[in-house]
């Protein structure tokens, strides 16, 4: 008998947030007011580089960010961390709007600890998310775990153990939470309905740093100069 022991998997947390239909459409309308359509571009409209990078400060979004905060704490609790010792901060938050054919190219959020995508509006084929790893722990030869090796039939059973990019199809109303350092991108929106997502970068600090060498100390103890 033989078996694999899978070690050090990336754990992406997914959860459906309860949002009533009226509130959902109110937030969609607010985001579509911010959007400046860019019809000929392959890339989606990104609110963080268009002057709308602090959505959590907008009163309309307060209830949503309360739910998101609960989901983030749910994720760290489910991972096995002690939330009583940690403080969580939304650092930057923005919306994205992907029109037909548009997508978001591969990137990571190096300036924060946790990131998420909340799908405020998304239909099936509206563009799911790819998660990638630069160095897959199982990829024993460089370039072995790419999609082209699947097409060339070097990879017989594509999956998490043999590919460096995995597709996830989230549903409208779902949030996906993951470490900010994780490479991710989206599939193109294959529908005529816009896909609207909300993201934020989160910083996690210690509440009390005495005795700790690593992790950020509480922001109240920092000194700006
Ligand atoms: Fe992102």
TrEMBL record:
<dbReference type="InterPro" id="IPR012668">
    <property type="entry name" value="CHP02466"/>
</dbReference>
<protein>
    <recommendedName>
        <fullName>Phytanoyl-CoA dioxygenase (PhyH)</fullName>
    </recommendedName>
</protein>
<dbReference type="Pfam" id="PF13759">
    <property type="entry name" value="2OG-FeII_Oxy_5"/>
</dbReference>
């Amino acid at each position: 008998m033989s078996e694999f022991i899978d070690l050090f998997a990336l754990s992406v947390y997914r959860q459906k947030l309860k949002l009533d239909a009226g509130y959902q459409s109110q937030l969609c309308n607010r985001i579509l007011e911010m959007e400046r359509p860019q019809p000929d571009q392959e890339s989606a409209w990104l609110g963080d580089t268009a002057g709308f990078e602090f959505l959590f400060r907008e009163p309309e979004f307060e209830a949503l960010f309360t739910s998101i905060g609960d989901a983030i704490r749910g994720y760290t609790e489910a991972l096995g961390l002690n939330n009583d010792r940690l403080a969580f901060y939304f650092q930057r938050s923005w919306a994205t709007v992907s029109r037909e054919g548009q997508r978001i190219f591969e990137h990571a959020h190096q300036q924060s600890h946790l990131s998420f995508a909340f799908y405020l509006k998304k239909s099936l084929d509206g563009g799911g998310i790819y998660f990638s790893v630069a160095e897959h722990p199982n990829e024993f030869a460089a370039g072995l775990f790419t999609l082209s090796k699947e097409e060339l039939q070097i990879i017989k059973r594509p999956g998490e153990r043999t590919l460096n990019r995995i597709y996830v199809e989230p549903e409208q109303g779902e949030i996906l939470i993951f470490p900010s350092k994780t490479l991710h991108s989206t599939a193109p929106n294959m529908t005529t309905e816009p896909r609207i997502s909300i993201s934020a970068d989160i910083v996690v600090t210690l509440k009390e740093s005495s005795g700790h060498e690593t992790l950020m100390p509480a922001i109240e103890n920092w000194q700006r100069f």
